[in-house]
Automatic annotation (TrEMBL):
<dbReference type="InterPro" id="IPR027417">
    <property type="entry name" value="P-loop_NTPase"/>
</dbReference>
<feature type="domain" description="ABC transporter">
    <location>
        <begin position="10"/>
        <end position="224"/>
    </location>
</feature>
<dbReference type="GO" id="GO:0005524">
    <property type="term" value="F:ATP binding"/>
</dbReference>
<keyword id="KW-0067">ATP-binding</keyword>
<keyword id="KW-1003">Cell membrane</keyword>
<protein>
    <submittedName>
        <fullName>ABC transporter ATP-binding protein</fullName>
    </submittedName>
</protein>
<dbReference type="InterPro" id="IPR017871">
    <property type="entry name" value="ABC_transporter-like_CS"/>
</dbReference>
<dbReference type="Pfam" id="PF00005">
    <property type="entry name" value="ABC_tran"/>
</dbReference>
<dbReference type="InterPro" id="IPR003439">
    <property type="entry name" value="ABC_transporter-like_ATP-bd"/>
</dbReference>
<dbReference type="InterPro" id="IPR050166">
    <property type="entry name" value="ABC_transporter_ATP-bind"/>
</dbReference>
<keyword id="KW-0472">Membrane</keyword>
<keyword id="KW-0547">Nucleotide-binding</keyword>
<keyword id="KW-1278">Translocase</keyword>
<keyword id="KW-0813">Transport</keyword>
<dbReference type="InterPro" id="IPR003593">
    <property type="entry name" value="AAA+_ATPase"/>
</dbReference>
Length: 241
């Protein structure tokens, strides 16, 4: 239950959203505290992206109340870079302030792309383009990152690297995040808390009290993983931890 605390960074209360006769969000309560990483799991079509869009202020047709403080930045599964602008210009787009180019250079360096500011988006790999999308969020110095399957389109090895990058950036910048993901391992590697969205409501909340850095063979990881997979109705295969 999301009781409003003054310390919360963002709170959604009674969020409802329907498309035609289909109720996707049926009165969701959610709160995220400063510095906290919350993963949002749920079946395909359960409304995860819809909830993220409402929290991001990108959906005018939802009912309920969202109150937030601090700066928010969003990262989507597709990088959404403008192909006719170079990488640095994409990161700088819409960023207020005077020292923008220095901040852009710093953000690109933080995601390991210090040398690629002058490149065109089409010259980047999928993983690099998604790093640029992360830099574009970072340069805004967000208190809250809203991430909609940010690593979902990447190959497994690149995804692992991006997860490690996320944990590094998080330790350094201490932003809070809501991470929509299909991947139970990703949720357990990154999040402090895992929420499951089901039938339009937050059906389960699981704390992930494991120290960082985490790995799937850490004590406690396998048990949490099995419990979440079972809750999501996914049979664990024998080769999984
Ligand atoms: N603009 C829209 N118009 C009509 N229906 C929509 C719209 N956006 C989402 N929906 C429907 O709302 C439901 C929830 O969609 P949403 O994308 O939020 O789910 P999700 O949990 O993020 O799914 P996935 O994990 O497959 O990405 C789906 O049935 C989807 O078809």
């Amino acid at each position: 239950m999301a009781t409003r605390l003054d310390s919360d960074l963002i709170t959604g209360r009674g969020i409802r959203r329907a498309f035609g006769d289909t109720v996707v969000l049926a009165g969701v309560d959610i709160a995220i505290r400063p510095g906290e990483v919350v993963a949002l799991l749920g079946g395909s079509g359960s409304g995860k992206s819809t909830l993220l869009r409402v929290l991001a202020g990108l959906d005018d047709d939802a009912a309920g109340e969202v109150t937030g403080r601090g700066r928010t930045a969003v990262v989507f599964q597709e990088h959404r870079l403008l192909p006719w602008k170079r990488v640095a210009a994409n990161v700088a787009l819409g960023v207020p302030g005077t020292d923008v180019s220095a901040r852009v250079a710093r953000a690109l360096a933080e995601v390991g792309l210090a040398e690629r500011g002058a490149a065109w988006p089409a010259e980047l790999s999928g993983g690099q383009a998604q790093r640029v999308a992360v830099a574009r969020a970072l340069v805004r110095e967000p208190d809250l990152l809203l991430l909609d399957e940010p690593f979902g389109a990447l190959d497994a090895l690149t995804r692992l690297k991006m997860q490690a990058l996320f944990n590094r950036l998080r330790a350094e910048h201490r932003f809070a995040a809501l991470l929509v993901t299909h991947d139970v391992d990703e949720a357990l590697l990154l999040a402090d808390r895992v929420l499951i969205l089901e039938d339009g409501l937050i059906a389960q909340e699981s704390p992930v009290a494991l120290p960082h850095p985490r790995a799937p063979d850490d004590p406690g990881f396998g048990g949490l993983r099995r419990a979440l997979l079972a809750r999501l109705g996914v049979p664990a295969s024998p080769d999984q931890h």
